[in-house]
Amino acid sequence: MSLLVSIIVPCYNASHYIADVLISIQNQTYKNIQCILINDGSTDNTLNIIKTFSDERFQIYDQENKGLSDTRNLGIEKSKGDFIFFCDSDDLLPPKAIETLISAYTGKEDIIIGRTATYAWDKKENISFLPHPGKQQIISNNHSEVLLKNITEGLSPIAQNKLYKRSFITENNLKFFSGIYHEDELWFFETMFRARNVVFIPETTYLYTIDNAQSITKKKSDKNLLGYLSVIKTIYHSYYLKYPDRNINAYYIAYLKKIIIGNFKYDSNYSKEAVLEMEKTFKEVNPAFSDRINLKNIDKTYFKYLNSISLKSSDAIKKEYFNRPVNSLRKHFKIILFRLFNS
């Protein structure tokens, strides 16, 4: 018998999208699926639209609004499949998405990852692609190779479009962090920290909608900043301090600090209290860096540099690093290296 795939779809005020999303799931060439639809307290017509689908593979749950993390966690609890797959209620699956992903399974993979296209819903066309290897890569992830790949080459940290072995999720008691923005960043770290075999395949298996104005990724706010701060604090306390021999943790914290500083550069709407919390967290989350890691020396130096910048005040960061024409941390780092080697 073929392997069962549980597709988890959290739904919140998705009436404009949800019918097409569910049709794309219903039309999958791979038929052995369990589709878990969770209406998370929608105030529009989402639940009624969901109920029009009579497919016996679709299971509908209705709850008061709890947020994306708790909704996905409920989906994990209700899943019965050999694999778990997350699909957002405004994204689409190409017809062979699940078939393509499952065909890459050889019996040992914890996570199988397809290529994600960014999709303009209104124009019905693909725009570009999220960061992803160009060719199939089979990674034995015993030394945090995937996390290293992310901080040096860039990968997509979204939870969607990844086929997770369900036993891997349950045995490691992996859950989404409740009540924060950017929960996917933490989920990506935690899953890739623990996974032992990860496969990237080159085929496009997901269409990620980018023109949904309601998406939280479109909204810069204190919650965005505080969400990222929660992520680095969790990694610091639950991984850096707990696993002192896993040297990736310090470098990954510096990588996330770079993202936070980059967002801070382009956003003037953060409250004074949120900025003070950023300064406080950066100083408290101040890891030591070991050179015993499979990174180029210049990359090691760069991440240490990023961490040193984060320890400055927000005003100093703005004054020193966000002024034109040299208005990026990477450019400043290159200038510092040039001066060192030419002094």
CATH top level class name of the largest domain: Alpha Beta
Order of helices and strands: EHEHEHEHEEEHEHHEHHHHHH
Total strands: 9
What percentage of amino acids are in beta strands?
Answer: 15-25%
Largest sheet geometry: 9 strands, mixed
- Rg computed from alpha carbons, rounded to a whole number of angstroms: 21 Å
CATH superfamily of the largest domain: Spore Coat Polysaccharide Biosynthesis Protein SpsA, Chain A
The CATH topology annotation of the largest domain reads as Spore Coat Polysaccharide Biosynthesis Protein SpsA, Chain A
Number of domains: 2
In round numbers, the mean pLDDT is 93
Write down the overall geometry: globular
Name the structural class: alpha/beta
Count of helical regions: 13
Poorly predicted spans = none
The percent range for helix content is 40-55%
Distance between the termini: 68 Å
CATH architecture of the largest domain: Alpha-Beta Complex
Question: Can you tell me about this structure?
Answer:
- This protein has 343 residues and is an alpha/beta fold.
- The N and C termini lie far apart (68 Å).
- Helix 8 (222-240) packs antiparallel against helix 9, helix 8 (222-240) runs parallel beside helix 10 (272-284) and helix 9 (248-266) crosses helix 11.
- The radius of gyration is 21 Å and the shape is globular.
- The model has no long low-confidence stretch (mean pLDDT 93).
- It is 43% helix and 18% strand.
- The relative contact order is 0.11.
- It has helices at 18-26, 46-51, 68-78, 97-103, 145-153, 166-171, 183-194, 222-240, 248-266, 272-284, 297-310, 314-321, 329-341, and strands at 5-11, 33-40, 58-63, 83-86, 111-120, 125-129, 137-140, 162-165, 197-209.
